[in-house]
Every structure is written in structure tokens, then in C-alpha cells.
Amino acid sequence: MKRILLSLSVFFALTSMAQNSPNNPLDQAVDEKLFTEEQIYWTGNEAQNYAVKNKTLAWWGDELIRLDRNECFVVDKKTGKEKSLFTLKEFNSWMSPDVTFKAQNLRTLSFPYADKPLALVESEQGMALVDFKQKKITWKLLESDYVASKLSHESLNFAYVKDGNLFVKVSEGSKQLTTDGDDDEIVYGQAVHRNEWGIEEGLFWSPDGKKLAFYRMDQSMVQNYPLASYLKGDRVVDDHTRYPMAGDVSHKVTIGIYDTETEQLQYLDCGDPTDRFFTNICWSPDSKTVYLFEVNREQNKAKLDSYSAITGKFNKTLYTEESTKYVEPCTPITFLPWDNNQFILQTRADGYNHLYLYNVNGELIKQLTKGYYEVTELVGFCPSTHSIVYKSREAGPIFENLYSVSVDKATVTKLDNGYGKHGGGYTKILSASGKYLYDSWSSHDVPRMIDVITISNVAAMKRKSDVSYGVTILNADDSWATKFQPTFETGTIKAADGITDLCYRIVKPYNFDETKKYPAVVYVYGGPHARNVDDSWHYAARPWETVMSQKGYICFILDNRGSEGRGLAFEQATWHQLGKVEMEDQVKGAEFLQSLPYVDGERIGVHGWSFGGFMTCSLMCDYPEIFKVGVAGGPVIDWKWYEIMYGERYMGTPQNNPQGYKNSSLLNKAGKLKGRLLVITGGSDPTVVPQNCLSFLDAAEKQGKQVDFYNYADEGHNMRGHKQVTLHKRITQYFEDFLKTR
Questions:
Q1: Which entry of 157, 185, 247, 593 is 20 to 30 Å from 447 by CA?
Q2: Of 460 and 437, which is predicted with more confidence?
Q3: Is the Cα torsion angle 199, 200, 206, 212 positive or negative in sign?
Q4: Rounded-to-integer distance, Cα 691 and Cα 702, Å
């Protein structure tokens, strides 16, 4: 990591001399070296000036393209030199005279055809397919008032949801497929099951672009949860949501198939959808079969089923998986580009997520990856070598690296330098042929590098030397170089079980003095599907940690058992008892902090959001002798008020796990609160509904406990826009007021 070229001993001497001199120029010089909130937080007015330099890249076949709001460029993969492909001004000149796509309204630009000079430009004004060689628009759709949409690149058929109903636009015009949708009781073409199991969308075109699979969700039986908007007009606006709470009635989902050639609409014959979850929809390469995973209400069984896309009838079950705790299929099967009868299945059946090769008869051919680590993403394929590119944590729990595995031989090749966090990017990082990839990566001391790797060269170049075998097209400077920076460190401590290693990050002030005693703040999340410590830039530290450190705090972050990326046993240690094991591990972290000679063990605070808000309140109530001040954002207070899909996976139902729900409920713990606690919520939070925090305030009041509270009216689970800056100012000031001076 680059450091400020200023002698700290001289700096300390100068600030010591000047500390009693108001308006001293030396004080001003120091202030200029410190971050302001507007400079460091993501939505701050000056944040862009201190963001790490990046390049937005995409593939056009095997040509690497750099994307800019006003222009796109072809990047030479050997030299990194660029030449213009076309500009936004040129694009608009090819559009009709009365339509202009504005740079600030652009959403995406992609190159969906490897062998054609066509770019798809998407904007708030609509979308258009441009032939940049012929300099003309070949297709356009100037509509944008839909809530969900999906374009088939193969057929240019377009599906969208408008006024609650599903439409398909083909060359002959638009056709309305449904009439009973309303985006409330009946929802078409959108993500279902509260976006669990990897569900992010609800429209799925077949490979030939002629058939559309879509979700239909009936929520009419689900509780209508009251939410309100106070800032949209003179009167309060009803902004309710359908919220299926743990143990209650769930919605019902079915899957429709529309054939654009026959104009027939039918639904897959899955039977009664009650208490069944359908996820990971996938088409066969020949567009004749639909595959999906079904998970039962208890979430301890999953099966991969196939259905005829022609008749909608059930074909067969190809794979089943059961667990004494829970199963969680999160990725669709992926067919091999060179064999339509074989596919890759991802599962944690052996305790860690790995890649398995199956055929369409449901027969296991081989396990392709194996070990005590998680495969985190299947990146793509190289058909010419019959290999798969993927990301995994094989090098260690804080690393994420790129590998390829031969499908024929199951031999693995590492594609990067073996440390850091690799494979980032806004688009697919693998080229169309699978011969090249661009690797955007960072490590704790590397802000960002982007390397272009020729995959076929990796093995040969590795034999010659251990130096980088990619062509670097970006080596970003430290964008904070003009500022005083904290020290970011990492390490491991033992979990409460005395066996498991837990990774932590510690952040020390830029002017750290080991002879001083500093107050400390623990940032916590602690729940599944998240982690806080990675070998990325600054060990993945949040800007807030830098602000707190420059105000004289030690910041500490620990990934307890229950967090992601360490396998099933690590994650499932918290099953049916959320908050217990996580708190035990976080207390071990706090005890480690207290053992450090430069930490004031009597001034330890805690802050977290969502699951981290639940953890913050829990730690403040269960361990008041350790945690003296807390700020809890959007906290779950009682898991009976959380959604079925997530809540029941980890806690069961209130009916079958009453003791677990009782033990984790903060309503039963409010009376143990001793320190200062600020609870913050979004007034229209549809994820952790306001009933949680308001009930905790009431429970505390009944026990004679005072809890501070702030409500961001009309905000959801997270604050939007510039409110992120004011939010963090508020959090920081709370610790300044009640922890630093206690």
C-alpha cells in the first residue's frame, strides 16, 4: 500500500505545538488531509474524485470493448491501446431525428452477437440495436414505462409487464397475454419467492427466442402489510406490500409458457403450488424442455425436474437432495456448449459448493471440483478445450481466484496470481470463444488492476516463470494518496468453539500511537449470504471505518460462523438459533479487542444494519458489560415478523421451533439494555417491516429503558442517494456523543 510521504514524527510534533492555537494554519493543513463525508461516502458530492480508477469493459466476440457514456472503444488485447468504435453523438445521428439518447440516461451497452457488428444500447428512452459498420439502426423499441422486461437477442421478441399484465412484442406487433394482473394480488413476469434461491427475474426466453417462460405469483392469500408514504403529496399515500411472515400462509407460484409461433399459452403441470418453491429456471439448448428446482416448504428437500415446453407435462426428476437442516439451490443447471446432453450442476452435497457433470438422464458422470473450499461462480466455457472457467476460494477464505477445469480430464489450472479478489466486472468477463478473459481485481495493497489473459497461454507461461502472465491494461493509482490513511490489517482468531478460525479486519487511525488507549467500534453483519473480510482493496473496508478511524477509533470487523463462503458446516452452525453462535463469536472478537494494549476495553461500541442491526441490539442487550453504545439500522427484532423464505430456512416456523424463536427475540431482552442505543429505520421498509423496531421501542419503554430512535420517512430498507451521507454522519455523531467521552 502506498503511504503518505510525510514524517509522522514531524507531524506529531507540529500538531502538538499547534493544538492550543485556534485557526492555526497547521490545523487547516491537517484538515485538508482528512476525508470529509462528501468525499468518502459513495453518494457524496465529491466522492467521484476519490474513487479508484476503473474501466467498464465488455466483449464483442473476442474483441475487448471499453465502454464510456459518450463513446466506446476497441481495446488491443496485447498493448492496451484503444481506438474509437462509435460515439453517442454518432449513434444519435443514426436514430430518428425526434429521438435522442442522453448520456446521463444510458443504462447498458452490450454486443450480443459475436459475429455481427451490432450493439444494443439501452436507455431510459428505450433501446436500439445499431449496426456500427453500416451506421444505421436495425431495430428499436422506444418504450420504457414497464416494470419488467426481457429481450430475446435471437429473435428480437420482447416481453414486458405493464399495468400489472404481461405483453409480448413481436414483428407483427404487441399482444397482451394476461388480463388479471395488478402487481399486488397477481404478479406476472417478476422475481418471486422474495428473491431467494438466486431468483432475480421472472421472464425467460428460450434459446431460439420463440418461447417465453414466466412466473405468475398469486399473493391474494398473503397478509396485506400496511406501509405508507408521507412525502408524496398533501395526504398520506397507501404503499402496502404483501408480506408472508414465518409460519403464515405463503403465496402460490406457477410457471407459464407462451409460444410466439402458435400463440398458445399454457402452464407447466406442476400440480398444486401450495407451499412449494420453484426456482432456477433453465431451458434446454433445443428449446423443447424446461428445467427447474423445486424446494419444499420445510426447505430440507430439493429436486431438479424437467417439463415439456410443448405440452407442459412433467418429464422426470433428474436429481434430488435432502438435508437434516436445509438445502439451498441457488444456480440453474448450465448445459455444455459442445454437448446438448450434458450439463453442470452446482451443489453443496459434499459440504462445499462444487461443480458436477450430469447427463440429461440424471446420471452423474463426474465431480469436476473437490476440496474444502467453495466454488463461488461458474464464469463460462472454452469449447475448443472443453474447459470451464470458474471462481473459487481454494487459496483461502479471504481470497477469490480464477481457475479453469478440463471437463474431459478434471484437471484444474489457476488463471491468476493466487491472491487478492479476482474476476470483478460489470459484464461477462469471458470472451465469446472462451479463449480470453479480462480480470478486474484488487488486493489489500492493490487498488485495482485489470489484466487481459489468453487462457491457452497460462499453463505454458506458468512453466517458464511465476510472473504475471496477463497483459495489464489498468494499474490504478491509490486514489487516496493525497489523504492521511488509516492502517488496514487482517488476521484470525478462534471462534467460541475453540477450533474454527475466524477472519477479522482491524482499522487503526492514521496517527496511531500504541501507547494511547482508543475507543473501539465493532461493525457487524454476521448473517448468511454475506461476508465482510476479503483480500481486496483495504481488506474490503467500508468508508465509514476510515471516517471513524480518523476521529480516533479502532474499528474491528469479524466474520463469525454463519456467514458465507466457508461451507455448509460453518454456515449451518446457527440453524434454528439465530443470534446465539454469532454473538458468541463476536464476543470472542470483543475479548480480543480488550486484550490489545491500545484499546480501552471500557469504551467498545457496535454498529450494524439489517441482520447486523439484529446483532447490534442482541449484543447490546446480552452483553451490556462489553458493548456500551450501539447503532442498529433496520434491525430484525423477532424472527416471527420476517418472511417465510429466508426466516424459515434458518429458524423453522414459530410452531415447530418455539424455543428458538423465544431465545432469539429481542422483545424478551429489552429489559437487559444498559448502554445507549440508537435504532434507525426506513419508514416504508418492505424487507424488515417497521413493526420490528417499533415493538422493540415499546418493549424497552415497558421495562423503563430509553432507546433513541430515528425514522427516515418514505425510505426502504436502505437509504437512497445523498441520505447515505447524512445517515453515516448521524451514526458517527452518536458514537462521538456517547462513546468517546464516557
A1: 593
A2: 437
A3: positive
A4: 16
Q: What is residue 96's predicted lDDT score, i.e. its pLDDT?
A: 80
Element (H, E) at 243: none
Pairing mode, if any, of strands 599-609 and 518-523?
Answer: parallel
How far apart, in Å, are the Cα atoms of 494 and each of 500, 525, 559, 598, 612? 6, 18, 11, 21, 21
Q: Which three cell numbers stand for residue 686?
A: 418492505
Q: Residue 259: which residues within 8 A CB-CB, separation 6 or more? A: 210, 211, 265
Specify the pTM. Answer: 0.94
**Cα Rg of the chain (Å, integer):** 27
In 394-454, which residue ranges form alpha helices assigned H by DSSP?
A: none
Strand bridging mode 627-633 / 676-682: parallel
3-class SS letters over 168-192: EEECCEEEECCCCCCCCCEEECCCC
pLDDT confidence of residue 461 = 56
pLDDT at 28: 75
pLDDT 10s digits, 574-613: 999 999 999 999 999 999 999 999 999 999 999 999 999 9
Which cell numbers hold the place of 364? 452423474
Q: Which cell numbers in the block locate residue 548? A: 471513524
Q: Label residue 134 exposed, middle or buried (CB < 10 Å: 0-12, 13-18, 19+).
A: exposed
Q: Are 211 and 259 in contact (CB under 8 A)?
A: yes
Residue 295 has pLDDT above 50, yes or no: yes
Compute φ and ψ for 608, nearest 5 degrees.
-165, 165
In the predicted model, what is the mean pLDDT of residues 499-518?
98
* Residue 427 in this model has a pLDDT that exceeds 90: no
Report d(CA 740, CA 629) in Å as an integer.
Answer: 10
Q: pLDDT digit string (tens) for 7-18?
A: 333 333 333 333
And the C-alpha cell for 429?
A: 468477463
> What angle, rounded to 10 degrees, do the helices at 543-550 and 723-738 form?
40
- Tally of CA atoms within 13 A in the half-sphere of 217 that contains its CB: 28
User: Residue 543 has which C-alpha cell?
Assistant: 468508508
The letter for the amino acid at 525 is: Y
Side chain identity, residue 43: T
Average pLDDT on 63-67 reads: 97
Separation of alpha carbons 286 and 340, rounded Å:
8
The residue from 416, 439, 622, 685 that is catalytic is 685
3-state DSSP call for residue 466?
coil
List 129's β-bridge partners, or say none: 120, 139
Given 610, 664, 665, 684, the catalytic residue: 610
From the candidates 153, 240, 386, 717, which is the catalytic residue? 717
Helix H or strand E encompassing 728: helix 723-738
Amino acid at 542: R
CA distance 411 to 369: 9
Q: Degrees (nearest 5) of the Cα angle 354, 373, 293? A: 30
679, 617 contact by CB (below 8 A): yes
Q: What is the DSSP string of 496-538?
A: TTSS-EEEEEEEE-TT--TTS-EEEEEE---STT-----SSGG
> Which pLDDT does position 459 carry in this prediction?
61
**pLDDT at residue 456, rounded to an integer:** 83
Is 610 catalytic? The answer is yes
- How many whole angstroms separate alpha carbon 710 and alpha carbon 682? 9
Task: Report the Cα 215 to chain-centroid distance in Å.
Answer: 23
pLDDT, mean over the chain = 93
Active site residue 717: yes
Question: Which among 697, 621, 695 has a CA at the least distance from the CA of 663?
Answer: 621
Helix, coil or strand: residue 320 = strand
Angle ∠(469,471,475) on CA atoms, nearest 5: 115
Whether the CB-CB separation of 216 and 314 falls below 8 Å is answered with no
Q: Is the pLDDT of residue 349 over 80?
A: yes
Distances (CA, A) of 257 to 45, 167, 244: 47, 13, 26
DSSP 8-state code for residue 22: T
C-alpha cell at 298: 420445510
